[in-house]
Structure formats: structure tokens, C-alpha cells
């Protein structure tokens, strides 16, 4: 499928105009970044794995009634998605204390939280995506109160789905972040899950060993990022268990 012109390039993906109005081609790169892009590398096969895994999760969400921007996978690295207006927030759902929350609140990493906690960050790389409250969101008009109610509902539904899927393959869903898009049908607006869901945007720990199977492997120099992502894909059945070259994923159609 022919791409149109490039419309955006981020740290992990490039977006191109799609073949039909209202569509976008989302290309997954092998670039890995951490600490607001202060640490960078190119990890062979990462884009292919994230494309496969995001397709798997987005398709699963649609099957349980959670609307997403995903339309179909085009090839090893590209997806066709619905164009939408991105709400300028990162929506973070935490089931266990880890990362910035553990540091910020002085909670031991891995501590189970009394209930899922939803946090919001303002999407601005230059500012380091600062944590914001619903008061900030309302005051600056980033989302209405109805939007926030819908975003919270979507985030918790995604959490229920992902946590269940991961539990079934022996993986603990520590936390994850999603982005939300607005789409319009005439005068009617609705919110959908956009961007991607992959080990780039989740913290995933092996339930028995505590081994990290997410981007913390890269952040903390814990080993092969491709190996960790391949392990997640293999457990979920996205990749054959006998794949001989973890660095060069084989795609299941």
C-alpha cells in the first residue's frame, strides 16, 4: 500500500498520510529512547515486534468493545490506523509501584497498590512530559469533564483487559501508558485508544522471577531488549516458540 507524505516523526514511529481520507500509515522504527531521548540506540527487530504486539492488543481490545484507532496491519512494520485528534495527555495506569512513582513517593518498587491508580502527564517533550492533575487539564482546556470521565473509563477497561491477558501467560502488568484520540462523526465526538500498546509503553515482569520484559531492559542496561520483547510475543502466541533468531523476528500472518 503506497504511503502519502510524511506528517510526523516521533521517537519510535513515523506517520504518513494514508491511502484514503481519514487514514494514516503508522511505521514502527527500531529506534529506542529513554530518559526523554537522552539515551538512544537502534535495536534490530524492535519495530517489527512492537507492530505485531500492538496489533495483537488493539485487536483484542476491539473484540471486548474498547474502541481504538487500529484498522489493520499492512506489513512487518506498518499499520493502517484511523486519523484522530490526539488529546495532549499521556494516561498512565499503575498497578504496582515502579519507575517515577516509586521514586516520587518513596515506595519500594514492586509494591502492589491498593487499587489501580491513574495519572496524567502533559505531552510535551521539551518539558519532560510533566505530571498534571485534573485541575490543570480543566483549567487549560485540554479535555472537558466528560472527556475525563470517558478517558478514566477507557483506561481502566484497557487495564482489565491487559492485566488478564498478561496474567494468563505468567506476566505481571506493573503499569502502562496510553494515548487517547478524538474522532468525529458529524457533530458527535467520541474518544478512542490511539498510538500503540507494546512493551515500549508497558512495564511487564515475569510473575515467578521478576525478570523485566519491557523497555526498562534498555533503560537499565539489563540485557537484550529484543530478547525481552520476543519473550512477550512468544508467550502470547504472536511468534512461534522455535523462532531461531530473536533479533530477526518471524511474523505470523
What are the main properties of this structure?
253 residues; alpha+beta; D-amino Acid Aminotransferase, Chain A, domain 1; five-stranded antiparallel β-sheet; globular; disordered C terminus; Phosphoribosylaminoimidazole-succinocarboxamide synthase; phosphoribosylaminoimidazolesuccinocarboxamide synthase activity; nucleotide-binding
Short description, anyone?
This is Phosphoribosylaminoimidazole-succinocarboxamide synthase. The chain has 253 residues and is α+β, with helices and mostly antiparallel strands.
Describe this protein's structure.
Helix content is 27%, strand content 32%. It is built from six helices and 14 strands. It has helices spanning 46-63, 99-105, 134-139, 145-167, 216-219, 225-235, and strands at 6-9, 13-17, 23-28, 31-34, 39-42, 70-73, 78-82, 85-86, 89-96, 112-122, 131-132, 171-185, 188-194, 202-206. The strands form three sheets. Strands 8, 9, 10, 11, 12, 13 and 14 form a seven-stranded antiparallel sheet that branches. Helix 1 runs parallel beside helix 6. The relative contact order is 0.16.
Amino acid at each position: 500500500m503506497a504511503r502519502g507524505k510524511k506528517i510526523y516523526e516521533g521517537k519510535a514511529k513515523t506517520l504518513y498520510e494514508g491511502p484514503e481520507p481519514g487514514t494514516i500509515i503508522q511505521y514502527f522504527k527500531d529506534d529506542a529512547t529513554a530518559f526523554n531521548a537522552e539515551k538512544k540506540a537502534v535495536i534490530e527487530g524492535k519495530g517489527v515486534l512492537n507492530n505485531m504486539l500492538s496489533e495483537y492488543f488493539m485487536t483484542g481490545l476491539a473484540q471486548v468493545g474498547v474502541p481504538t484507532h487500529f484498522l489493520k496491519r499492512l506489513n512487518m512494520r506498518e499499520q493502517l490506523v484511523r486519523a484522530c485528534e490526539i488529546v495532549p495527555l499521556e494516561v498512565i495506569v499503575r498497578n504496582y509501584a515502579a519507575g517515577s512513582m516509586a521514586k516520587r513517593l518513596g515506595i519500594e518498587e514492586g509494591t502492589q497498590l491498593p487499587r489501580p491508580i491513574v495519572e496524567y502527564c502533559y505531552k510535551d517533550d521539551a518539558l519532560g512530559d510533566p505530571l498534571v492533575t485534573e485541575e490543570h487539564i480543566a483549567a487549560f482546556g485540554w479535555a472537558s469533564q466528560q472527556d475525563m470521565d470517558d478517558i478514566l473509563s477507557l483506561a481502566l477497561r484497557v487495564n482489565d483487559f491487559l492485566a488478564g491477558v498478561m496474567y494468563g501467560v505468567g506476566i505481571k502488568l506493573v503499569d502502562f501508558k496510553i494515548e487517547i484520540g478524538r474522532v468525529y462523526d458529524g457533530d458527535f465526538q467520541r474518544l478512542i485508544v490511539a498510538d500503540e500498546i507494546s512493551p515500549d509503553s508497558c512495564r511487564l515482569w515475569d510473575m515467578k522471577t521478576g525478570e523485566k520484559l519491557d523497555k526498562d531492559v534498555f533503560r537499565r542496561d539489563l540485557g537484550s531488549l529484543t530478547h525481552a520483547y520476543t519473550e512477550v510475543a512468544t508467550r502470547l502466541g504472536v511468534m512461534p516458540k522455535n523462532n531461531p533468531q530473536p533479533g530477526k523476528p518471524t511474523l505470523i500472518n
